[in-house]
Specification:
Low-confidence stretches of chain A: 498-507
Radius of gyration of chain A: 24 Å
Shape of chain A: globular
Strand content of chain C: under 5%
Number of helices of chain A: 17
Distance between the termini of chain C: 68 Å
Number of strands of chain C: 0
Low-confidence stretches of chain C: none
Oligomer: heterotrimer
Strand content of chain A: 15-25%
Largest sheet of chain C: none
Structural class of chain C: mainly alpha
CATH class of the largest domain in chain A: Alpha Beta
Number of domains of chain A: 2
CATH superfamily of the largest domain in chain A: P-loop containing nucleotide triphosphate hydrolases
CATH architecture of chain C: Orthogonal Bundle
Mean pLDDT of chain C: 88
Chains: A alpha/beta, B mainly alpha, C mainly alpha
Number of domains of chain C: 1
Mean pLDDT of chain A: 85
Number of helices of chain C: 12
Largest interface: B-C, 47 and 48 residues
Chain lengths: ~500, ~350, ~300
């Protein structure tokens, strides 16, 4: 293979934060026309590394070169000027502004409005991601929003394009479209740095992979030459403890949702359309779907934040549609929402105080309106103990905990209340591997004990691992549940709404 | 380079220190202001802060302390509950005025009857009047999403005009020789709110203020509703998750603070002020906002802050007399206090750290 | 009897202070900052403008001084909220209370003095009124057609995204706050220099609060602010006419009209925003939230 000049090279790059060495002696190179994966678990140092390339953070050690020249951007503007473009995992988009305005904001010297709009139309067509410059972002789907981010980058003719976990918001079919675009780009000579933790994706589409673990480069290899298991082992550093799925039997029906329909809570929300499901004791029902298809809304309807019509939600034949959250908890229906900080827990409250959010009724923490401080503290301590939450103590504020530890606390707070039914939304999102395993195991154990569990998640691997039956939420509609055993990726993709995003964007 | 790093936990030590720092800073800045204006700064500071308590004429001014502090503390206690939840009742002044009017209305309607029931009825009427005036922004927010800040504020201007209308019209004293203003309630024993213990200035409003402090302390620290209120202010989604209904919270907080303000208005009208005039609104409703913040929205803090601000009122009057200091100085002081407090508040939430040079 | 032209002129004059203050606050809120201190900035401008006009004999020097004074006092609010990251609602209130007190204090010596009269401008309309009418489309153009305005709107919509793209969030907001202060100052000065021609304590009488309501009413657009200011001007003029015509309603009740009208307008607009099916929020996404960059 002829040696191609590396577009980007990192040599010995390091960065420290108080208490943690985020990147340590990182060296790798991305060549022109190459799709180079940056692989690693949450917390491995991928984000920090990439922020340094993009000028958001300054490295402590090492050097970077771009096209042979020393690369040390003072800020994102300088990085962009040097030819680095980045599509973030969380889009930097302005909802109320139009596509053209968003793109203009992402550019240094945007051309006049009319010319910019014309260029947007042309470039987006060229790359197979058509866009209407006059539409406001708030009206676009997640896939379309990502297109805006990508087009914004492409209009600057970058030498190095960085993509941060781009397929986490896409259906499998949309992801295919994305990779086709990236391949086109690579063929034109652009170097692409692709951050992900999705092994199959990387093995299929990437030319090279650099694996980070604990801030260090563990290996740099051709992903196609390794199996997914080998790559996973390198990412995590050894074999993972297998999950114990044994000992569960489906019992009587605990929860029934019958034709639940609710209007969208606001302009960005999703309406629920005639959602129906039934959940048996001892069963785990997995609900898959890309974010933004009604997951939050479904959880809110089940937790009681949003009331529904009579006869739509029945817990052991008790009609809960009009029942408020605390009463539902008393009846045994508990929930754990997606956002740990701000929804499942109050960031500024201590862990003790956070127990009062949900555990009051079932754990006797509140009697006749009065708070039993000692009981709340004791319960917090129990959760901390049983779920191995790493924290100085129950008086620590929730926001001081790491993502994984807070998630263990939030899930543990619900599990230890011995619910009849537990609904969780994205239980291991942004959580390190060890905590994720603990959370998943606790859900399995809960089901084994006779409770019914609904797991709503974007992580298909997780759903396949945990659930007995699987259904998909797409634009507020729930597909019919199918037994998990025997489902393959294509079928799942179709259930998630295969056509979604495939059609030519409405112009 | 200085950098701000969020603290893991709000610092309790700084929470107590910041009001004290703010007071100190205000004294210094105020002193500078006086110097610029041509007054002796030390004499002015002493007159305002020291003399009312320990100076030569303190016998007259000390009782005034409770008189001025009571309405501030009563109103601020109610406001603090809402403020904690992020529900901004800026119209306490209006609720105070309307409470004074409704309470006085009962008295004027009952005149000249005597009876034990009259005064309690007046207090109830005052509370209801303030409650109702506070419920207007609550309902408009719940039904239409209208900002309670702007609605409650507009209603202050409306309330002032209602008071003026009453003083010149329906409530005008028929035996008042044509002067505007209602009958003087201090001269109507069954309706008056006299000094309960001679020489202290303590009237029923003072009792109510003390009761309010206790009640709010109990609500916020021991009752689950207080927990929900705090949660709603810090993380509204988490509060809803816990089962709090925003509409109920809005109605509760605005109604409660309205009722407290209304009662304060009644105690004032039946007591120190004596009658309904167009000058009924003396600004207690606005100063109470400062008291609430200065007291860090905590009952004990509010108690102390109320006494402090009452001191500045009295000291300001004293300085007007003895040093010819303009009356508006007190207002400036109070505004400065709030400014400094808000500024120093940073230290409770952030640490100052050195940025390591790259 | 009722001369439409003179009524219209009165309406414009009544609307002008609100127009200036609301246009200024519009820019501030589009940048994502809620500044409740408009009343304090207006009264500061009213006093500073009056004082400068009196001392120099030139009303225009007065308006310039008013703009500077308004911007200066607004910097207190900017420092509190952008540098010290204090709560925006409380800081705005502090600004109002402080401003009202400061103005009352320094205004004492000026009570009872008459300001130099202003010569009317073209078509017998005051120059400052013309300026207001020009500022409205200017602000619209700035927000919707200029690069800086686009950046400002981005900051107000999503300050995290703006920061990620490298824009100086705090600097932009401080500049916007300064502009808001200057505009409010001019608006306040119009009351003391051009309308009442004297200084009295508290003479803005809630105009700053009404300006805040007008911004909500306008759905955060400049044409909406113009319409709202004219609406308010109309109500004020109507109420004065009714008083003068000797209508049998107590004068205190009539003088409530502007405030009640503001409430009604607020309710109608808020209801429409809450229940309408139009996509997208009306208020800028980051309005009222403080921004702290976590590196």
């Amino acid at each position: 293979m002829t040696a191609e000049a590396a577009v980007f090279r990192a040599e010995g790059v390091g960065k420290s934060y108080p208490g943690v060495r985020a990147n340590d002696d990182v060296s790798f190179a991305v060549e022109a026309g190459q799709i180079h994966a940056l692989l690693g678990e949450n917390g491995a140092g991928k984000s920090t590394l990439v922020k340094m390339i993009y000028g958001l953070v300054k490295p402590d050690d090492g050097r970077m070169t771009l096209n042979g020249a020393h690369h040390h951007p003072a800020d994102p503007r300088a990085a962009r000027a040097a030819g680095v473009a980045m599509v973030f995992q969380h889009f930097s988009l302005f909802d109320a502004l139009t596509v053209a305005e968003n793109i203009a904001l992402g550019m240094e010297n945007p051309p006049p409005r009319r010319e910019l709009s014309a260029r947007i139309r042309q470039v987006s067509q060229d790359f197979g991601l058509p866009l209407n410059p006059a539409r406001r972002i708030v009206t676009l789907s997640a896939g379309e929003r990502q297109r805006v981010e990508i087009i914004r980058c492409l209009l600057q003719d970058p030498r190095l394009l960085i993509m941060d976990e781009p397929t986490s918001v896409l259906t499998p079919q949309e992801a295919e479209l994305l990779f086709a675009t990236l391949r086109k780009l690579a063929d034109r000579g652009t170097a692409i740095l692709y951050i992900s933790h999705k092994l199959e994706e990387i093995r299929t589409h990437c030319d090279r992979a650099t694996i980070l673990r604990g801030g260090k480069v563990v290996d740099s290899c051709d992903p196609r030459a390794h199996s997914a298991r080998e790559l996973a082992a390198m990412m995590v550093g050894g074999e993972m403890r297998p999950i114990d799925r044994s000992g569960r039997q489906a019992g009587k029906i605990l929860l029934e949702v019958k034709s639940l329909s609710l209007p969208a809570p606001n302009a960005e929300g999703t309406a629920l359309k005639s959602v129906s499901l039934s959940l048996r004791a001892g069963e785990i029902l997995g609900i898959g779907g890309v974010a933004g298809n009604g997951q939050e809304e479904l959880l809110a309807a089940l937790s009681g934040e949003v009331r529904s019509a009579p006869g739509t939600i029945l817990l052991e034949d008790r009609d809960l549609g009009a029942t408020p959250p605390q009463a539902r908890r008393r009846a045994g229906l508990l929930a754990a929402p997606e956002d740990r900080l701000g929804h499942a827990a109050v960031p500024d409250f201590s862990l003790t105080e956070n127990t009062l959010l949900t555990a009051g009724p079932r754990k006797g923490l509140v009697r006749k309106g009065l708070i039993d401080r000692a009981a709340a503290r004791a319960y917090a301590e129990q959760v901390i103990r049983d779920f191995d939450v790493r924290t100085p103590g129950p008086s620590t504020a929730a926001r001081a905990l790491s993502g994984g530890n807070l998630q263990k606390f939030v899930i543990g707070r619900e599990v230890l209340q011995a619910p009849r039914v537990l609904v969780v939304n994205q239980p291991t999102w942004g959580v390190d591997a060890g905590a994720a395993t603990a959370v998943r195991q606790s859900l399995l154990d809960l089901a084994r004990g006779g409770a019914g569990v609904i797991v709503i998640s974007q992580d298909l691997d997780e759903l396949m691992e945990l659930s007995d039956r699987f259904c998909a939420l797409n634009e507020g509609r729930l597909s019919d549940p199918r037994p998990t055993a025997g489902l393959n990726l294509d079928e799942i993709g179709l259930m998630l709404g295969g056509a979604h995003g495939m059609e030519v964007a409405q112009i | 380079m200085i950098r701000l790093v969020p603290r893991d936990q709000t610092s309790a030590a700084w929470q107590i220190a910041t009001p004290l720092l703010a007071v100190l800073a205000t004294m210094i800045a105020g002193g500078l202001l006086f110097a610029i204006m041509g007054y002796d700064p030390l004499a002015a500071i002493r007159t305002i802060f020291w003399d009312p308590l320990f100076g030569p004429a303190a016998g007259y001014s000390r009782p005034q302390l409770l008189v001025k502090a009571a309405p501030l503390i009563l109103i601020a206690s109610g406001l603090a509950v809402g403020f904690r939840a992020g529900i901004w009742n800026i119209g306490a002044e209006g609720q105070y005025i309307i409470g004074g009017i409704t309470g006085a209305a009962v008295a004027l309607a009952a005149y000249p009857a005597e009876g034990m029931w009259i005064f309690p009825a007046m207090v109830l009427a005052g509370a209801l009047g303030g409650w109702a005036w506070g419920m207007i922004p609550a309902l408009l927010r719940n039904w239409f999403g209208a900002s309670e800040i702007l609605v409650s504020l507009m209603l202050v201007y409306v309330a002032q005009r209602v008071a003026a209308w009453m003083a010149f019209g329906p409530m005008k004293n028929p035996e008042g020789y044509g002067f505007p203003g209602s009958r003087n309630l201090q001269q109507y024993p069954a309706a008056s709110n006299p000094e309960l213990i001679a020489g202290t200035g303590a009237h029923w409003g003072v009792v109510a203020a003390a009761a309010a402090v206790l009640a709010i302390w109990f609500l916020m620290s021991r009752h689950i509703r207080g927990f929900h209120i705090r949660a709603a202010g810090l993380a509204p989604r988490a509060a809803r998750f816990a089962g709090v209904r925003p509409e109920t919270l809005v109605a509760f907080c605005l109604g409660l603070s309205g009722a407290f303000a209304g009662m304060a208005g009644l105690f004032e009208v039946a007591g120190p002020a004596g009658q309904i005039t167009d000058k009924l609104g003396t600004g207690y409703g606005f100063t109470a906002i400062i008291v609430a913040f200065l007291g860090r929205l905590h009952p004990v803090g509010i108690l102390l802050a109320g006494l402090l601000l009452a001191l500045t009122y009295i000291g300001g009057e004293l300085a007007q007399l003895t040093l010819q200091l303009p009356a508006a100085t007190v207002q400036v002081f109070q505004g400065m206090l709030l400014f400094f407090l808000l500024g120093f508040d940073l230290l409770t939430r952030f640490r100052i750290a050195r940025r390591i040079a790259a | 009897m009722i001369d439409p032209l003179s009524v219209f002129l009165l309406l414009l004059a009544a609307a002008t202070p609100i127009l200036f203050a609301a246009l200024g606050e519009l820019v501030v809120e589009r940048a994502g900052v809620l500044n409740l201190g408009v009343e304090g900035m207006m009264i500061t401008g009213a006093l500073a403008g009056f004082a400068a006009a009196y001392v120099t004999g030139s009303p225009f020097a007065g308006f310039l001084a008013a703009a500077l004074a308004g911007a200066a006092i607004a910097m207190l609010f900017a420092a509190l909220t952008q540098i010290l990251l204090a709560n925006q609602v409380a800081s705005g209130l502090a600004l109002t209370l402080f401003g009202l007190g400061l103005a009352a204090l320094f205004g004492k010596p000026l009570e009872g003095i008459k300001a130099p009269a202003m010569m009317p401008g073209p078509l017998r309309i005051n120059w400052i009124v013309w300026l207001g009418l020009v500022m409205a489309p200017l602000v619209w153009w700035f927000l919707n057609r200029s690069r800086t305005g686009l950046i400002l709107r981005g900051v107000g919509e999503n300050h995290d995204a703006a920061h990620a793209l490298g824009y100086p969030v705090h600097a932009i907001r401080i500049a916007a706050i300064g502009f808001g202060g200057a505009m409010a100052g001019v608006g306040g000065a119009f009351i003391s220099i051009a309308t009442v021609l004297q200084w009295t304590e508290g003479m803005t009488a809630g105009a700053g609060w009404i300006a805040l309501a007008i911004v909500v009413f306008s759905n955060w657009t400049a044409p909406g602010v113009l319409a709202g200011a004219w609406l308010f001007g109309g109500v004020t003029v109507l109420q004065l006419r009714l008083q003068a015509a000797g209508i049998r309603v107590p004068v205190q009740l009539l003088s409530m009209a502007p405030y009640l009208a503001t409430i009604i307008v607020l309710v109608l607009i808020s209801a429409r925003q809450k229940y309408s099916r139009r996509a997208g929020r009306a208020a800028p996404g980051s309005l009222g939230q403080n921004f702290h960059a976590l590196r």
